[in-house]
Write a structure and sequence with these properties.
Elements (H helix, E strand, L loop, with lengths): L1 H14 L4 H11 L2 E9 L14 E5 L2 E3 L1 E5 L6 E6 L9 H14 L5 E11 L4 E12 L2 H10 L8 H12 L12 E7 L10 H11 L2 E7 L2 H6 L15 H9 L18 H26 L2 E5 L5 H12 L3 E6 L9 E8 L7 E4 L2 E3 L4
Parallel strand pairs: 5-6, 5-8, 8-9, 9-10
Antiparallel strand pairs: 1-11, 1-13, 2-3, 2-12, 4-11, 6-7, 12-14
Length: 365
């Protein structure tokens, strides 16, 4: 009798026509909440605060989406702070530490911070640069101060590996509800990688998939870097390109290029060395800007490390004025396609501008 009742109930459930709400729930199960960090500024570039959910309209590939989650600017953030402590910054470690501490102090109570820096591993035979998770996410200011004091330096720049640690370690798990759409990377760097195992595309895809808004304080280290490039190798040139950097330079010409290639730094003339340096910094600038723009973040140029503190203050101010929107895509296909996001404002005066995440890659089965 129990079996017959169960069977009957199952048949009835199969034959029942789903209601609109049930259909919506099915779509939401099959899709994932898309988080969209947003900043709104007036004509003068000052943040516009106290907006409501109905001030925003979200479009995905041109189609209006229903905003189901909304967090105002007062909600807390989780921040991965990446400090480039390699190369030309090694002699300025104390300056980096002071700037980082000032940034942490300027965040709000409830904001959580993790710190990633670079270090040199020595196995007795070889020294290698590595990205180092100094401290996991915490709002304990004493623990963060101690972590800043422990930050060390490296003999190379595993910048892409540092970005991957943000994805794979700092933000490896889904955020708690109060931090949905409110995760950020803040990187103090020149963006010129030299020793990473990971590549830029891998890091970019990871950051985009995780919906992390990315800020870069782009320090101009090129003049210092190029001072040590010139001269004879026998004369003890201070700075040399890594093999990975030289390969990155030649790849920029394309596979059909006739440019003569070499991976031996000492075979390069001064003109070639400066050309490679120029291209590496151009690549780094492009990469930082594309990641920042697509995530809804921003690049803050800093002439040198002395300017970093002011740039950090600007980043902290923007993080404190971010809105977060969330929606379940009306496109339930799990096809791995890239979907473009556009956010428009309603009920606000002319001249108000919005900067938001520009898109995401849909999941696949």
């Amino acid at each position: 009798m129990l079996l017959a009742s169960s069977f009957s109930a199952g048949v009835l459930a199969q034959n029942k026509t789903p209601t609109k709400n049930e259909e919506d729930e099915v779509v939401r199960v099959e899709t994932e909440l898309v988080d969209v960090p947003v900043v709104v500024t007036d004509r003068a570039g000052k943040p516009v605060l106290n907006l409501k959910q109905n001030n925003f309209t979200v479009f995905e590939d041109g189609k209006t989406q229903e905003v189901t989650d909304f967090a105002a600017t007062s909600a807390p953030f989780e921040v991965a702070l990446l400090l480039d402590t390699s190369g030309s910054t090694r002699s300025d470690l104390a300056l980096i530490q002071r700037a980082a501490q000032s940034f942490i102090d300027s965040l709000r109570p409830g904001d959580r911070v993790s710190i990633i820096a670079f270090k040199t591993d020595d196995d007795g035979q070889r020294k290698t640069a590595a990205a180092d998770l100094v401290v996991a996410l915490t709002d304990n200011r004493a623990a963060l101060r101690s972590a800043v004091e422990r930050v060390s330096t490296s003999n190379g720049t595993p910048y892409y590996d540092g970005l991957m640690q943000v994805v794979e370690k700092v933000f490896a798990t889904a955020p708690k509800e109060q931090f949905r759409g409110r995760r950020a990377l803040v990187a103090l760097t020149d963006g010129v990688d030299s020793t990473s195992v990971s590549g830029f595309d891998e890091a970019r895809e990871g950051l985009e998939e995780a919906g992390i808004v990315c800020y870069f304080i782009e320090v101009d280290t090129r003049p210092f870097f190029e001072e040590g490039l010139l001269g004879s190798c026998e004369g003890g040139a201070v700075t040399r390109f890594s093999a990975a950097q030289i390969r990155r330079y030649f790849r920029s010409f394309g596979s059909k290029s006739n440019v003569e290639q070499t991976s031996n730094f000492c075979e390069l003339g001064d003109f070639e060395r400066l050309a490679i340096s120029k291209k590496l910094y151009e690549i780094a600038d492009f990469e930082m800007n594309i990641v920042a723009k697509r995530s809804g973040g921003k690049v803050f140029p800093a002439g040198d490390l002395n300017d970093a503190r002011a740039a950090f203050k600007s980043v902290a101010a923007e993080i404190g004025t971010k809105y977060s929107l969330g929606y379940y895509s009306s496109n339930g296909k799990r096809d791995g396609s890239y979907r473009k996001i556009r956010v428009e404002l309603r009920g606000l005066p002319l001249g108000v501008q919005v900067r938001a995440r520009e898109g995401y890659t849909a999941p696949v089965n």
